[in-house]
Design the sequence.
């Protein structure tokens, strides 16, 4: 499905009802809006796993502007501010009040900008395998822990000069280390995604916004509950980055869940444990 938002059409999909029968009436269930990683991927990396939460919440998969099946080819609008404003406008267009917004990886950057720009809009936010800022030294060390010096060097060659034509080689060499199981094609679901590496180059290349962002100060002003998920085996948003993020959130609003045997996106390595934590958070904030 598509909906007009901020001058473009955003693509989305839905699993699970928002209202369910409850005795003689209807009961509202929480709405979970999923923000995918990349940038340059789409919602497919969440499927089919997140369908498991459709018994608890209405699950909405959203393709960011300029990515997946969504419109928005103007590169000047490929910014965290615009992507975050799109989340707010998307919810308003569909009449979604007090969503729970889950951002994974790059989607977590968008979710932090959404928190900064629209601090009271969500019922809660889940920051999954993400960081308040990029820390190249920590990333290099994490890739070396996972794959040794050769994988570290390949990863940093890519991240020091991100270009669209280098994405496929990086995906083959380094992305299998994103998860504990090391699938042959890298992050599960990547092959199903409609990939747009030009968006990654725009955002993450030299001088791109990814290297300039720093949410540490704005996180201190967070006014809604936040769940932070991190895996000890994650090489691209290492657990040290998650703990820095947590350190800048208000303690009374923050739940932190770090798992030793998981990589990038806890549900990929421990779906039962990950979804149990998310269900508990949904129950708490709904």
Sequence:
């Amino acid at each position: 499905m598509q909906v007009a938002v901020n001058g473009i059409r955003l693509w989305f999909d839905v699993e699970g009802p928002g209202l369910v029968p409850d005795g003689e009436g209807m009961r509202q269930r929480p709405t979970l809006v999923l923000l995918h990683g990349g940038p340059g991927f789409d919602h497919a990396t969440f499927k089919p796993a997140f369908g498991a939460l459709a018994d608890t919440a209405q699950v909405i998969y959203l393709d960011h502007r300029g990515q997946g099946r969504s419109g928005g080819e103007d590169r000047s609008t490929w910014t965290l501010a615009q992507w975050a404003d799109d989340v707010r406008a998307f919810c308003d267009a569909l009449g979604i009040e007090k969503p729970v917004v889950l951002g994974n990886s790059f989607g977590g950057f968008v979710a932090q900008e959404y928190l900064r720009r629209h601090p009271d809009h969500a019922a809660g936010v889940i920051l999954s395998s993400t960081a308040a800022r990029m820390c190249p030294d920590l990333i290099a060390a994490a890739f070396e822990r996972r794959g040794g010096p050769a994988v570290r060097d390949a990863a940093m060659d890519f991240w020091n000069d991100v270009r669209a034509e280098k994405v496929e080689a990086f995906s083959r060499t380094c992305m299998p280390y994103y998860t504990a199981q090391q699938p042959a094609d890298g992050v599960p679901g990547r092959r199903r995604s409609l990939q747009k590496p030009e968006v990654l180059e725009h955002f993450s290349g030299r001088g791109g916004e990814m290297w300039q962002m720093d949410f540490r100060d704005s996180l201190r002003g967070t006014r809604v509950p936040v769940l932070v998920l991190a895996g000890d085996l994650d090489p691209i948003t290492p657990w040290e980055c998650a703990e820095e993020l947590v350190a800048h959130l208000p303690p009374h609003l923050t739940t932190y869940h770090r798992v030793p045997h998981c990589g990038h996106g806890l549900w990929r390595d421990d779906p039962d444990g990950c979804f149990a934590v998310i269900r508990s958070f949904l129950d708490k904030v709904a």
